[in-house]
Amino acid sequence: MVVDLLGAWRAFVNVSERGSFTEGAAATRVPQSVASRRIAALEKLLGERLFDRSSRGAILTQFGRDMLPSAQRLVRLADDMEHEAEQARLSPLRLAVPDACPVRDLARLAAEARRNGVHLDLHPAAPAERAELVRSREVRAALVAVPAGDATWSVRLGLAATDDLPVRTVYVETLRAGRATRSSRRRRIWIQPEDDVPHIRDRMFRTRDAVGLQPAQVGVAATLTAATAEVLGSEDLLLCSPGQAVELGLHWRPVGEIDPVRGFGIAAAVGDDAERIKTRLWPAIARCLGAGDPNEETT
Description:
The protein is 46% helix and 17% strand. It is of the alpha/beta class. It has 3 domains: 5-89, Winged helix-like DNA-binding domain superfamily/Winged helix DNA-binding domain (Arc Repressor Mutant, subunit A, Orthogonal Bundle), CATH 1.10.10.10; 91-152 and 263-289, D-Maltodextrin-Binding Protein, domain 2 (3-Layer(aba) Sandwich), CATH 3.40.190; 158-259, D-Maltodextrin-Binding Protein, domain 2 (3-Layer(aba) Sandwich), CATH 3.40.190. The strands form 3 sheets. The chain has a 5-stranded mixed β-sheet, with helices on both faces. Strands 9-8-10-7-11 form a 5-stranded mixed β-sheet, with helices on both faces. Strands 1-2 form a two-stranded antiparallel sheet. Strand 1 (51-52) and strand 2 form a beta hairpin.
């Protein structure tokens, strides 16, 4: 015989406290017949009667009176555990995210997470800071920068400028001194903080050196705002994703010599947090990061 012990003890407590099988069953939110069966099954399991069924109403036997205090503690404990479990489900999961993500996309991510039973507390930060935040457990999880081969989400990068570039692909070597067509100033490529990571930055520097650019022609900006300001005020180029180019009003092209990719993975202080985020929020995070943007040129 299978007995729902918690349900049986809950029915026993409710009937005992109200002195009525009808009212006790209503308090337990089950039909009276179900409450009666549960208590009868409990009596059979314990080997003693809990109620004197020869009396009117629900009158406890001596054995029933002896069992009532323990049963009440059990039911209260179960109620407390259910409340704590609900609070734990609603407790925000603090997630470090790229500070380059647009506010609207972060808001959509948080809203979709709630629909999937995950309450996010988003903390925008630069790549190095995100990794440190999860190591120090100041956040429960972080979207960390990783090489493309290790990435859960991948975002293709290219070069963007204010003018509608007349080529389908921008080759870094065309920025060499003497190749500029409208200005004697050497054009620069600006790397934003999100891409100030070895697998992107160092590849750009190696390409710069291989094609003969001056060291200052590929640099890392202090902020995305600063990098964008340089590009808007000159013929410089911004290393960015197609989605960022659209947001900033720039014209995007792939890089000719290399194919830089911004890769993201999840680092979590607790392993199941990482799996929960990937399972429930993969598409929402992809949209927020700009993963899945078209590989074609964006104007």
